[in-house]
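At this stage, I needed to go through a protein sequence along with its fold in token form, as given directly below:
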Amino acid sequence: MVDKNEMKLLEAFSFGEIEEGEFLQSFPVNLLENKDYLITLVNEAWKDKNEDDLTTLLDVIAMLDFYEEFDLQGIYRDLLSENWHRMHEELIDSLDKKVENEGAFISVLNTEFEYYKGGEEDFMVPIWSKCLWSLYAIHSKSAIDEISKYQNSKFEYLRETSKKLMSKLENE
């Protein structure tokens, strides 16, 4: 569990209030020598379904170069498939637009998150639209096939987005 002092420092660094050097020097654990410490906190926050701590921890890990080998993309993909949090839109933004993430975007296109039930037009459509744009960036045959399916969506914005993307593909 993240203690209050640690969270203050994590948030200050995440929000750009302190620089990396000051953060690393002030943090009570030497993260350069004990990189697993933040990973352990991520796992605890995930297990406890503590969205606030998890978001901050993932943001900080993404900002620190010495966590390059840590598979943030895998965590983003795994979290996208879970319905206990409200980080889906941010996760879509953070997920690289690469073929290995294509399935995650397609999965979200076929999901209605519980916290948005009844508000699909206002809340899910923008998330789904981001997935279509992400698939467009990936540009694989299966991504293009998925985009094409939404030309007949019951949601006008998705129909228009799909048509726009298909038109862009045809003009390439």
Observations:
- The radius of gyration is 19 Å.
